[in-house]
Write a structure and sequence with these properties.
The structure is a single chain. It contains 17 helices and 5 strands. Strands 3-2-1-4-5 form a 5-stranded mixed beta sheet, with helices on both faces. It starts with a helix and ends in a 10-residue tail after the last helix.
Length: about 400
């Protein structure tokens, strides 16, 4: 139940402990309930077990590979995956429950040689994968290419969300109107933020991966234009956003290009990619306008589908998204809370507890097989002296950096 609370609801360790204690009290249960540190220990041991438990071999696997970073010099290379024939194509997108943790490697210096070496080690658990999906980060992309030289059976697909974001970035970053649009929105936001009109502040783009989060901003601008076109528009909206009417035409184009990209992303996430994808995808797009910019974006989407669809064998469908792996990084950071600011800790092992659908029997087997001492040993060997430990060694256990000013 503790694991399900954390994985299924995003509860923290303390929240999960509190909920279990409340349930026990409410229903007058005789059994004791765990404190938050016990639950933390369970999650870490479950994650450690996921790195040593046997996985199916002699079958076609799909791997998702990516790095995540926090403060400090280390990167964390994560490899998750599932048997390709188990992917629920056409029914839904992959979720964390479908995946298993295959490898987890902290790297102080990440190079393509290092990545290729770790991928080679990971074959000991699943055999050589049929497919690797990644965001095509430089060291991961080159590392996979080195791996493919030894294992030509392995296909490599670019994550569709990162590909689509790159297409929009390359298109819009060179558009002066887009730059002016963002600049004016930023100025309006700054003027309103500390005023009574703060409820009209527009969504902001993330500093990292900004073109993967551009949808809410475009939808906000479209809604503002609709408000401006009313017979009696809101006075505050007119005062703050009357200038937006000058962007009606370019905004229609940006919305269409974003819709086209997002439709492609959602299709590939749900249905995968094969030789028949392009025809089905174009039907899903519907009729496109004759804007040159829309035709350009559609052309890039077709290039993606043709390039990676050709890698699929007859009657085979390939995965084209790392969305599930990306979501695991988000859940890990939420679980770590403010500890993220202290760099990687032993909680990175929680990635193993976040993946798969652990039954009560599996959890019992894992906790019987992995004592806390073994999990602590993995943490010491792979993470060494963490930034949090180094900070305490300098400032002392009780005094924090914030308290020092």
């Amino acid at each position: 139940m503790a694991r399900d609370l954390i994985v299924g609801t995003g509860a923290s360790f303390r929240c999960a402990a509190g909920v279990l204690a409340l349930i026990a009290k409410r229903f007058a249960l005789a059994s004791a309930t765990p404190c938050f540190s016990t639950i933390r220990s369970w999650i870490i041991r479950l994650g450690c077990y996921s790195l040593r438990c046997p996985l199916p071999q002699h079958t076609s696997w799909v791997w998702m590979v990516d790095h995540t970073i926090q403060i400090g010099p280390q990167k964390l290379l994560a490899v998750v995956g599932c048997v390709l024939t188990d992917v629920p194509f056409g029914k839904r997108s992959l979720t964390l429950g479908d995946l298993r943790l295959i490898a987890l490697v902290p790297m102080t210096h990440s190079t393509h040689e290092h990545v290729a070496a770790e991928l080679e080690k990971a074959t000991a658990r699943t055999g050589v994968p049929r497919l690797i999906v990644s965001d095509h980060g430089t060291d991961v992309k080159k590392g996979v290419e080195d791996f493919q030289k030894r294992h030509p059976i392995t296909a490599h697909v670019h994550d569709i969300a990162h590909y689509g974001a790159n297409v929009l970035e390359n298109r819009w970053e060179r558009d002066p109107r887009w730059q002016e649009f963002l600049r004016q929105l930023q100025q309006v936001n700054q003027k309103m933020r500390q005023t009574a009109d703060a409820y009209l502040v527009a969504p902001t783009l993330r500093p990292k991966g900004r073109f993967m989060s551009v949808g809410p901003l475009l939808r906000f601008a479209k809604r503002v234009l609709q408000l401006l076109e009313r017979e009696k528009p809101h006075e505050k909206v007119v005062a703050r956003y009357g200038w937006l009417g000058d962007y009606r035409q370019p905004l229609e184009g940006w919305l269409e290009e974003h819709r086209l990209t997002q439709t492609t992303i959602e299709w590939v996430r749900r249905h995968g990619i094969n030789s028949e994808t392009l025809e089905k995808l174009e039907r899903t797009w519907g009729k496109l306008s004759e804007r040159p910019s829309t035709g350009m974006v559609a052309g890039y989407m077709r290039v993606y589908v043709r390039k990676y669809g050709r890698q699929a064998q007859p009657s085979e469908t390939l995965v084209g998204s790392t969305e599930a792996l990306e979501s695991s990084f988000g859940k890990l950071k939420r679980l770590e809370g403010d500890k993220v600011s202290g760099g990687f800790t032993g909680l990175v092992l929680a990635l193993g507890a976040l993946t798969g659908n652990a039954s009560e029997a599996t959890v019992r087997e894992a906790l019987d097989a992995v004592p806390q001492k073994e999990a602590d040993g993995w943490i010491k060997r792979n993470l060494g002296a963490t930034l949090r430990w180094l900070r305490k060694s300098v400032f002392g256990k009780e005094q924090t950096v914030t308290e020092l000013g």
